[in-house]
Design goal:
The protein is an alpha/beta fold. It contains nine helices and eight strands. The protein has a single domain, classed as Metal-dependent hydrolases (TIM Barrel). It has an eight-stranded parallel beta sheet. The model has no long low-confidence stretch (mean pLDDT 96).
Length: 264
């Protein structure tokens, strides 16, 4: 059976409160070998770790503060993230970065929180799971300042233009592709960019419950993205890369296991 790793699923989100176990089981039944559960606040990072510990060898977690919550990132929050990251099931710092699209936290707070979490990742020798939206110049500048000391980094849910991709690849970053590539309104440019991403730097993710692929037929009524839809994303990536689904599955799974240090 073809196996895939979803490097970013927000399974601690309240959208999965009533049927989380069934959603996870459906993902494995669809061909997933592992899921990295995203932490985006202190509370969700703790919840993500608890969820992951319930499925050893199948689920792992990250611990971070999303830029939307950057104003909550203080010394105590960093201590809480460190506690999560000291557990081997928690395999990456983040989700962290900059989001100037909505500015839910003031931009100075976002930059401060981003730098704090990069320093934490450096201190603990952990990879980092990154978020960048409408903030490329500041994001790249802060990442560049810390990159030499970071072990590995992935720009998750990449949606940017070619010059942004080139900048991240030059910084030796990995790239995460989601169902955005299936969006005929905003994401089709990714089909031209995917072939430029080296196989050992490309990973795939759902970002569930967000970013359900828009070209699903039939479209599920609930409109909630789930890890079980990762094969659909993989097929879109394979078509863009001019490769078979099986090759993309093998390559992205191998890259994800190496990046996060996953068993299997």
């Amino acid at each position: 059976m073809t196996v895939l790793v979803d490097i970013g699923a927000n399974l601690a989100n309240s959208a999965f409160a009533k049927d989380r176990d069934a959603v996870i089981d459906a993902g494995f039944a669809a061909g997933l070998a592992g899921i990295v559960v995203t932490g985006s606040s202190v509370a969700s990072s703790r919840d993500a770790l608890a969820i992951a510990k319930g499925r050893p060898g199948k689920l792992w977690s990250t611990a971070g503060i999303h830029p939307h919550h950057a104003s909550d990132c203080d010394y105590d929050a960093i201590l809480a993230l460190r506690d999560c990251l000291e557990d081997p099931v928690c395999v990456s710092a983040g989700e962290c970065g900059l989001d100037y699209d909505r500015d839910f936290s003031p931009r100075p707070d976002q930059r401060r929180a981003f730098a704090m979490q990069l320093r934490l990742a450096i201190e603990l020798g952990r990879p980092v799971f990154l978020h960048a939206r409408a903030a490329h110049e500041d994001f790249a500048a802060i990442l560049r300042e810390h990159r030499a000391e970071l072990v590995r980094c992935v720009v998750h849910c990449f949606t940017g233009a070619g010059d942004e991709l080139d900048a991240y690849l030059e910084l030796d970053a990995h790239i995460g592709i989601t169902g955005w590539i299936c969006d005929e309104r905003r994401g089709h440019h990714l089909r031209e960019l995917v072939p430029r991403i080296p196989a050992d730097r490309l990973m795939i993710e759902t970002d569930a419950p967000y970013l359900m692929p828009r070209d699903l037929k039939p479209m599920p009524r609930h409109r909630r993205n789930e890890p079980g839809l990762l094969p659909h994303v993989a097929r879109a990536v394979a078509a863009a890369a001019g490769k078979s689904f099986e090759q993309v599955a093998a390559e992205t799974t191998r890259t994800a296991r190496a990046f996060f240090g996953l068993a299997g």
